[in-house]
Specification:
Layout lengths: L4 H8 L4 H16 L5 E3 L3 E3 L13 H9 L8 E3 L9 H7 L3 H16 L3 E2 L21 E2 L2 H10 L9 H9 L1 E3 L13 E5 L6 H15 L4 E4 L6 H14 L6 E2 L9 H5 L6 E5 L1 H11 L10 E9 L1 H11 L9 E6 L1 H9 L2 H7 L3 E3 L26 E3 L2 H5 L1 H5 L4 E3 L2 H10 L4
Parallel strand pairs: 2-3, 2-5, 3-4, 7-8, 7-10, 8-9, 11-12, 11-14, 12-13, 14-15
Antiparallel strand pairs: 1-6
Helix pairs in contact: 1-2, 2-7, 6-9, 8-9, 8-11, 12-14
Amino acid sequence: MYLTKEDERMLSGEYGGLVQEAMRFLVKLGDAYDAEKMIDIKYSYAYLFSREWGKGALNVELLEEAAKSGVKVKVPTVNWNYGLEVISSRAQKEAQVPPDLFKSVKKDAELCRKFGMIAVDTCAPFLVDPMKRFPLGMHISSIESGAITYYNTVWGLRTNREGLSAFLSAITGRYPEFGYHLDENRVGKHLFDVEVELKDHTDYSLLGFYIGKIVGDEVPVITGIKNPGIEDLKAITCSMAVGGSVTLAHIVGITPEAHTLDMAFNKEKPKEKISVTSKELESTREELADGKEGEKVDFVELGCPHNTIHEIAKIAKLLDGKKIKAGVKLHVQTAPAIAYLAKINGYADIIENAGATLMSICPVLNPGIPGPRYCQSHLEYTVGNLASNSTKAVFYGPSNANCKKRFLGNTEKCVRAALTGKWG
């Protein structure tokens, strides 16, 4: 792989151990995928969970030493560290945050600030950071499957599915050119013609999960979607990355690279054409949710991916002047910045006066729903019967919440379940 003189200086250790280890990793990554060269990235969405790293070449001591010596990220970088630092005392109690986890997260957050990263603490950073200022085709490096798919699909930016490499590319400003950074890998492969009217967030979520299951890691092209909002696009891109491992989809008329079918397929023929009707959406719902009408609901999760301020306003309106059924929990999840907007607009008070909890934590990683990361006895713990308007939330329900039954429906139905304790 061709390296510039600046790449070689980073690799030689001229800029310190962290930069050197970052470049070593990226070179190995590029070699593994036969990348011909490194490219500049202009933005990164990354994480830094030092407690998950061992004593290898990249370790806590190296990070702390680099931060102390003044090493900074080379591109604008936002980070995700759970959001535990800013949640309310009520939410902290509800989330059952272990003290050692809280201490570790605060340490990581401080390291991120020293490196020049900006905390957004959300799975949907595109809701709070106006990165759309970057031009079409800009190369970035991003974590979080739903955000990755949104960036590629809705904004026409270019990123692969990243983990630690997002942080390392932010430190170096470089990334090997392979995968979805190349034109040839962004061509559509499967055509989905949506013939059913998509009425709400949940319909988009079901559609995305269905498409993801079929295409796996290939690029779907979708026609028939009319006037989707941000919430709809957030739902479909997130769920495609859960049903399969979709990194890029072309929604004709929405995706900047796909104003027409010819653009989406680069004038090639699709491998297959699939018509999507209400039958496909309902079969996907039945696959994910086994709860029946009239059955008991114990836990309602809204905000996977995180809610927009408009979604929170809607939830607040549905809860205004009402009370959650005794014994039922309702978590409303969002980014810390949006939680602040909810507070100053009075929505947070309405939600919490109803007995629900506004939380700025990832629903999947929420310590209040103990998973293997947090609770040794997690298989002995259950949230009971789980309801959500998100395919991602119900898909991960058994592994992260050890739930008994799952219910999947729109926001109105979920709030009604929280108020009555029953599905229907």
